[in-house]
Write a structure and sequence with these properties.
Blueprint: E1 2-5, E2 7-8, E3 21-26, E4 35-36, E5 43-48, E6 58-65, E7 69-72, E8 87-99, E9 107-115, E10 126-135, E11 144-150, E12 161-164, E13 166-167, E14 174-175, H1 182-186, E15 191-195, E16 206-220, E17 235-236
Antiparallel strand pairs: 1-3, 2-17, 3-16, 4-7, 5-6, 6-16, 7-15, 8-11, 8-16, 9-10, 9-15, 10-12, 13-14
């Protein structure tokens, strides 16, 4: 895991006290760091030492099921209360070698922020999710980077996001549980997932050969805490591989 902080040097104030942006990236060179994929009768997920973006390590799943999900419920950088931040960016690199048994089949890829704490009425969790797009092995030849930036304190679901944990009684579409807001989910994230199991859809069994790499989260502290940056004299950052 690479921890990168935006460090500002100002007078005698310590750089750490002025850190406004923090990025955590899991590139799987040092292990799973909380991330894992589907395991069991349908196949396995594992670190592919040379299958990552650029030839390094990546997290690969070869699995036959209705869908797949790469999840993290133990790494504090990707779980917990995000409402203390002004802005959050999540990104990851994605490569698809196969989806489908005989012919390429497109499947939805989404980022899902799950809260078992807010689950109700028999649902396993309540969640907010962003659908990036439907992809197959014909969509791109190598890795692509998917990224989203959002305000974790928004009461309403941001544009493009959906909710899970209840069902609209008229349309039967998935929705957030009654009284639960987007900010409520962001304040109680028990698990982050990169998943193809889009709520409201049913899928056939298919063969999946998918790798993710450089799963990254960047958080920005609220603007009032950043006022001390006025008059900054230097800016230092590091670049992800």
């Amino acid at each position: 895991m690479k921890l990168t902080a935006l460090m500002i040097a100002l007078g005698t104030t310590t750089a750490a006290s002025l850190a406004g942006v923090s990025t955590t990236t899991v590139d799987f060179e040092s292990g799973l760091e909380g991330w894992d994929g589907p395991q069991g009768f349908g196949g396995a997920s594992y670190i592919d030492a040379t299958g990552g973006n650029g030839g390094g390590a990546g997290l690969r799943t070869e699995f036959n099921n209705f869908g797949i999900a790469f999840t993290n419920s133990t790494n504090e950088a990707f779980t917990g209360d995000f409402t203390g931040f002004e802005e959050v960016t999540v990104s990851f690199d994605l490569k698809i070698d196969q989806i489908g048994t005989f012919l390429p089949v497109p499947r939805p890829f989404m980022l899902e922020m799950r809260s078992t704490t807010l689950a109700a009425d028999g649902y396993p969790w309540a969640s907010a999710y962003l659908l990036f797009d439907w992809y197959s092995q014909d969509s791109f030849s190598d890795y692509i980077t998917l990224s989203t930036t959002f305000d974790p304190n928004s009461m309403a679901l941001p544009a493009g996001w959906g909710g899970f944990g209840a069902e609209d009684p008229d349309t039967f579409e998935p929705m957030l549980p009654d009284g639960v807001t987007f900010a409520d989910i962001m304040g109680n994230v028990d698990e982050m997932a990169i998943s193809t199991l889009l709520p409201g859809f049913f899928f056939t069994f298919d063969d999946y050969d998918v790798t993710v790499d450089n799963i990254s989260i960047t958080t920005t502290i609220p603007a009032p805490a950043s006022l001390a940056l006025v008059g900054m004299t230097g800016l230092v950052g590091t670049r992800r591989r």
